[in-house]
Amino acid sequence: MLLDLSNLHIWDDSGVEAIYKVIQQFESAGNTVRMIGLNKESRRMMRQLKSYLKNSSH
Question: In what residue span(s) does the STAS domain sit (predicted)?
Fold first, then answer.
């Protein structure tokens, strides 16, 4: 599964959380998910919050 996020800018942690929820749904259905196209600021935010969101009950 390829998620093209080229026209997306993540503004805050709720945006990161929403994207990770979608990814988790696809992965739980047995899909491998790869994201492309995120701008530098959005990639940074995703990296910063990734471990927190994976370990939380959000």
Answer: 1-47
Report the domain count for the chain: 1
At 20-54, the pLDDT tens digits run 999 999 999 999 999 999 999 999 999 888 877 76
The answer to whether 36 and 3 are in contact (CB under 8 A) is yes
d(Cα 37, Cα 52) in Å, to the nearest integer?
Answer: 23
Domain range for 16: 2-54
Judged by DSSP in three states, 7 sits in: coil
Round to whole Å and give the CA distance between 40 and 24: 22
DSSP 39: -
Q: pLDDT grade, residue 56 (50/70/90)?
A: low
